[in-house]
């Protein structure tokens, strides 16, 4: 069965987003700096239609984030569009007409909505019956590929606490965010084991599995 | 001038001690598990008078903790003996007659006390005029060796926030402590840069310097 995995970048003080997350600032104040290791990479630039860029020890982790899954699960906050029922001209996500997913994306929400098919193979499905149902649907869609947990922190915590997350890569950057959304909270009995760690320029990637 | 450096083990959720620290449980509930990577090592066993033990990628970090400094600074909580003035038969520290430091140790406290000379080269000096004075005295005592910041979390935060810490090795273990003392809080404008990271069995060591 395909694995459910989460790749997430965390500040050394434990935040995966800064304070004051909003539509204008999805990663909160200072949160964009979390991805300073990712943005200059050739793999990232290519996935966003640009040329050039660096190839270094971070590249395999970027490739895993960008193209390592057959389906994605994300929370309503990460998809965006504000809380509550969907508006008449509903929010299409943060990513424009051709989102970088190129596979089915399952959005956890309390509010039903018809699937949203965009360009390049990305269709957003809105799941209202919980994290296990979303995982089941995502696994079916992913076939023999893995399922990526897109975030944010709250959804990641729910899958961790439920023991449903198979693999977790935490990319730890030297940034001090001081406030914001923590990944490692509300974890229930979750136990982790370290599999490997890799030093890259400006970041350390640590791979964990469920212990 | 000798460097001020801190080697500290942190759970993946950011704690350097569990909840409920006390004389009986100096690292709080579950906190002793932080050092599961350190205890089986030959370097650790030798420093505590035992034979045998493992040699692996963690060994250089253990040696740095155990013998890499000419003086140590620690907080009153780490030395122990409870808050307030020293009692008539004062607390001698957690480490018995022959503490594993074997060099001068400067204890930050609000309460004056005569130096305490124990066996094996360890003398505790009680510093009441602040972190800069303690650092000055420790540097003088260390000669051309480095000064080690022993902890706990609060003292480490004060040196980090004051920009006085030259080097920080955070040994991150897969433990989830859920509550306790955080290292990375109250840091003022502290900025860090990653120098290296090293994978060891059950732990990842990341070395930072002041940015």
Q: What is the makeup of the main sheet of chain A?
A: 9 strands, mixed
Q: Can you list the strand order of the major beta sheet of chain A?
A: 5-6-4-3-7-1-8-11-10
Q: What would the CATH topology of chain A be?
A: Dihydrofolate Reductase, subunit A
* Mean pLDDT level of chain A: 94
Task: Name the helix and strand elements of chain A from N-terminus to C-terminus, one letter apiece.
Answer: EEHHEHEEEHEHEEEE
Amino-to-carboxy terminus distance of chain A: 18 Å
* DSSP strand tally of chain A: 11
Q: Which bin fits the share of residues in helices of chain A?
A: 10-25%
The percentage of residues in β strands of chain A lies in 25-35%
Low-confidence stretches of chain A: none
Helix and strand content put the structural class of chain A at alpha/beta
Q: Please tally the helical runs of chain A, counting DSSP H or I stretches of 4 or more residues.
A: 5
As a whole number of angstroms, the C-alpha radius of gyration of chain A is 16 Å
> Which protein chains make the most extensive interface, counting residues with beta carbons within 8 Å of the other chain's beta carbons?
A-B, 28 and 28 residues
CATH architectural group of chain A: 3-Layer(aba) Sandwich
Tell me the domain tally of chain A: 1
Briefly, what CATH class of chain A? Answer: Alpha Beta
